[in-house]
Amino acid sequence: MSSAAAHFAEHGWWLADTLDEDGAARLRAWVSEVSAWPDDGGEWLHYREQTDDGPKLCRTENFTPFHAGLRDLLTAGEMIDGASELLGQPAVLYKEKINYKLPGGAGYAPHQDAPAYPFVQVHVSCMVAVDDATTDNGCLEVASGLHHEVLPLDDVGCVRADVAATLDWTHVEVRAGQTLWFHSRTPHRSGPNNSQVPRRALYPTYNAAAEGDLRADYYREKLAQFAAAADGTDGGRVRVSLIGDFQGKPVL
Ligand SMILES: O=C(O)CCC(=O)C(=O)O
Fold this sequence. Notes:
By secondary structure, this protein is α+β, with helices and mostly antiparallel strands. It has helices at about 5-10, 20-35, 70-75, 75-85, 160-165, 215-230; strands at about 15, 45-50, 55-60, 90-100, 110, 125-130, 140-145, 170, 180-185, 190, 200-210, 235, 235-240. α3 (about 70-75) runs parallel beside α4. It is globular.
């Protein structure tokens, strides 16, 4: 077993150096391109949240079919090799999103990803930092070594507050171009962006290829569930996920 896979197996996460400075600069440019796409120009999904400075973009999903650079980054080379190494078998891209967390953007309640991902048993996610992610701008916090079971959930699919309060949370600061891999049951959360700079990140999720290429099924199911949920809000928060982890306020 590689040292990456051994660290991942023990702690449920692994921090990798993925892109050099040029690669990180290219990634910033690509993400800026995506953020400028119109809301209704294609099948990508943009989401906005209300902040004290007005509505801001908080997420884009389903962008790899429409951006060759990001598609190549997430479906070939180091990323797919990293996912395959950590899964212990060949991996395929299941879904992808950009979380923008612009200044004033909201954080995420403690959760595990597994309850939000239908269809697949074996999957791994990661955060590829587009900007440096710091404690001040809302980097991820993880609870190590707790990726062996789904913890008790609240009524929106997040870790129950009394359980989350007992966990040992570590802030993981991630430099632009680094990748924080985490297990689908690794508990994680993040604070709001209290800084003046964006904290953008890509979040691809990979599943074992043996379970099939399920990306189209995932987006079909998600769109159907969102269509059924009328106005795209969920108890005063923006609905961006199949669970209620995002704490952003809806734009009314
Ligand atoms: O971007 C973040 O701060 C947290 C993201 C996250 O946990 C999620 O999108 O499920």
